[in-house]
Amino acid sequence: MKIVYTDVLVIGGGLAGQRVAIGARRRGFDATVISLVPAKRSHSAAAQGGMQASLANVLKAQGDSEDVHFEDTVRGSDWGADQEVVRMFVNTAPKAVRELAAWGVPWSRVRKGDREVIINGQRVTLTERDEAHGLIMQRDFGGTKKWRACYVSDGTGHALLYAMSDRAIASGVPVHERAEALALIHDGGRCYGAVVRDLITGELMAYVAKATAIATGGAGRLYRVTTNAVICEGIGTAIALETGVAAVGNMEAVQFHPTGIFPAGILVTEGCRGDGGLLKDGEGHRFMPDYEPEKKELASRDVVSRRMEEHIRKGKGAKSRFGDHLWLDITLLGRAHIDRNLREVKEICAYFLGIDPAEQWIAVRPAQHYTMGGVRTTPSGQSPALMGLFAAGEAACWDMHGFNRLGGNSVAETVVAGMIVGENIADFCADPANDIDFSTGLVRDFVEREQGKLDALFASGGTEDASAIRAEMQDLMTDKVGIFRTGRELEEAVDALQKLLVRSRSIRVRGHALGANPELVTAYRVQKMLKLALCVAYGALVRTESRGAHFREDYPRRNDQEWLKRTLATWPDERGTLPTLGYEPLDVMRMELPPGWRGYGAKDYIDHPDTARRASELEALKGRMAGADRFTVQNALMPYEHLLPVSLRGHNERMDERLT
Amino acid sequence: MSEPQTVAPNDHEPPRRLHINVLRFNPREAGTEPRVQTYEIEEAHGMTLFLALSEIREKQDPSLQFDFVCRAGICGSCAMVINGRPGLACRTLTTQFGSEITLAPLPVFELIGDLSVNTGKWMRAMSERLETWVHMNEAGVDLHKMEERMDPALAEEVYELDRCIECGCCVGACGTLRMRPGFVGAVGLNKIARFRLDPRDNRSDDDYYELVGDDEGVFGCMSLVGCQDVCPKNLPLATQIAFLRRKMLANGLKR
Lengths: 660, 255
Ligand SMILES: Cc1cc2nc3c(=O)[nH]c(=O)nc-3n(C[C@H](O)[C@H](O)[C@H](O)COP(=O)(O)OP(=O)(O)OC[C@H]3O[C@@H](n4cnc5c(N)ncnc54)[C@H](O)[C@@H]3O)c2cc1C
Prior knowledge:
The structure holds two protein chains of two kinds. Chain A is an alpha/beta fold. Helices cover 35% and strands 18% of the residues of chain A. Chain A contains 18 helices and 23 strands. In chain A, the strands form six sheets. In chain A, strands 1, 2, 7, 8, 9, 10 and 18 form a seven-stranded mixed beta sheet that branches. Chain A has a five-stranded mixed beta sheet with strand order 19-17-11-21-22. In chain A, strands 12, 13, 14, 15 and 16 form a five-stranded antiparallel beta sheet that branches. In chain A, helix 13 packs parallel to helix 15. The longest helix of chain A is centred in the C-terminal third of the chain and has 25 residues, at 518-542. By secondary structure, chain B is an alpha+beta fold. Chain B folds into two domains: 17-116, Ubiquitin-like (UB roll), CATH 3.10.20; 131-254, Alpha-helical ferredoxin (Fumarate Reductase Iron-sulfur Protein, Chain B, domain 2, Orthogonal Bundle). Chain B has nine helices and seven strands, in the order ββαβββββαααααααα. Chain B has helices at residues 49-59, 119-130, 152-162, 169-172, 175-179, 185-197, 205-212, 226-230, 237-254, and strands at 17-24, 35-42, 79-82, 85-88, 100-104, 111-113, 116-117. In chain B, a hairpin with a 2-residue loop joins strand 3 and strand 4. The chains are: A alpha/beta, B alpha+beta. Flavin-adenine dinucleotide binds next to helix 1, strand 2, helix 4, strand 8 and helix 5 of chain A. Residues 11-17, 34-37, 39, 42-44, 46-51, 156-157, 179-181, 215-218, 227-228, 231, 235-236, 267, 269, 369-370, 393-395, 407-412, 414 of chain A line the site of flavin-adenine dinucleotide (FAD).
């Protein structure tokens, strides 16, 4: 049995995973990254539009700060987020952007003087300040008060991931590519690493580590129509669930992006609307102002996606042989702007739709896009249930997105969480109390158990076909666990998914090809994916309210009185067909921003009994502190800085807010 | 108002039957030889090679090996030789060919199986060898302070070269690499050009000369321009190589 020893095992080579590894490595620990694919091919590369950080360099960002970013994020989350974590995040995001700038990311930069932009369909001239020349640019994104998304043309994720990967190479972090974690090694209280399959040879190995971090990204492939890469299957989240101990949080919170190209689901960035693009219906009418007079096309994603589907249901969509869709019109931005700032969009339109977006409208319809749920962690990034297990990035439920994440906040989260968790993991490894005293017997048992499961797939007396089961699951999720949900359909979905899970236990792998054997890969993955799908569908069925991206037609109101809590799913019985759901309440009395109206979407919700009390408490506090600076006031409302690693504490400098 | 354009066969004609010929070989199966296997499938509207190959694997042959990740032309995983020419399979529409489509793995790279090759290993080795990162004084960066300024036009120029997705098409199409297996390829030389442009990288032309001032570097290129023709991101590879060669030549002469 091959065993690899390392201080820190990072499962996942996207932005989050590599930043964790670099952090641990800089503190002198061995960190080994494993990844299904070469690190630079991780799905972080596909992020187009931008990374939120309140640098406040451009005119339309003036007045932006951590405070505004905080409020936007909490409202965006529909109050599902952990507000302390949001504070940690907004304070670190500018540092993350600046670190990446130093590492070579070619951020788009401000040009002083006049420039023409499109705002609300109108051509407007903005005069950028001389002092801003050469600083990092910001563009507008949905659900934000200020322009805050820093970007590199529309290849932001690519540029970030390359700078990050090259920094990992510079730091000597090994990345074991084409390696897949199949199970976590643990004893019910402590995690010791993972059983890993080599996707070239098919061999199983054990990676034994003091600390293990899951940074495996999202689970979009639970759905048929998704913007996610084909490797976004949620396997990392699933293996945490399969420990039976670690919990996954809020899996029912699934984001649908308004502008997947139709029907392929490939994304065109929110930057299209941020830069002034408009949504139009089958008659060419701009419909968003009818529904959302304030934020229009730039309300949060959950709201825009729902409005689009609502409009299609009214029969207002454009018709095509694949069904109805809507249009995204960016022709008004002009060819020069598209050529410079929306190049990937242009390529995608040319290759997949055969159109030129400077001349023609883009066929779009909402598609699954982001997994808000994931491995539940404390603000430090560690699982509260399994010591030595950490999680970061889209795979984690850290939980700064709650029930809807804002565009641009995700790549920001990956890097910020990577910075924070990297430091915390190093602290964890430095503490002798966390040395591991593991038994090779345990490791052997885990490897043998996984080998046994694979062998069983060949020897099974069953006749089930893994690809067919996966396709049925994806159809069910898209058709019944999508943007609009009802109790009846969710019940049908849960029922059908359970049957599929049972059937998946009789999958028969026929081909014995040596090496990775793609047939075998599909077989073991679909068993894990079904468990996650059940967490989504069952969590959605039980949550009888609407919050953020989770919308129940039979319970259309947000219900803080009963549902201001995070869903925690565990899977204690390996042979079971349903997760066990538990709930973690969010404490209104500790919130800096008590629940209210988001500023867009429905105004109708049921208050939590503590909300009024907390609101008046906060008012009184603020009154008493009149005249104090914003940091002192914030600290009195909800202290959070103690949760940050020391090196990441402290204020962020801005043009209009110099450090003294 | 614009209409969606059809990029697929005319609605009225019956769908075409495609013959997809795949060069197959699993180096892990002892005693087997490379062979061409033909799959027949019905063309669908808007079908890309990603969709075609996925359908073949799901419905006909679950053992077929290939690599797709983003399926949107962004990640560079799926480069292969398509009717004789390296390209990204995910964004290649079947309509652009006749009914025979022949697929082979990229040459030069280690074969994993069928259409899957180990570009990652090659690229990591290239990165380590050419030190493809910004060389800087890390201690000098205070993250609390405002970022260093950069000329907006220069930032765009750097990004232009930074758009490389390491897909390996240029390597697969490179005549020089057939003769000089140690050649760093257009991908490697483009990286040097990129870092050379970047004011944050404190290396000098002397340093770059050490890395690429020989026959395995910029002087090895035989200017066959295969690289630039196949680059899916339309990077100005040949131009950059020629430019870099002049700079390195000047540096060499000075030595
Ligand atoms: C098309 C698209 C556009 C986007 N645009 C933006 C944007 O403009 N702004 C923004 O903020 N966000 C955007 N997002 C979201 C954002 O890109 C992602 O949430 C983020 O990049 C995820 O990063 P990550 O590091 O968590 O995971 P990923 O980058 O997905 O990396 C996951 C890693 O885990 C590895 N892995 C997975 N499972 C296993 C396993 N079992 N064993 C070993 N390794 C494994 C993979 O190989 C990969 O290396 C976009 C998302 C999509 C889909």
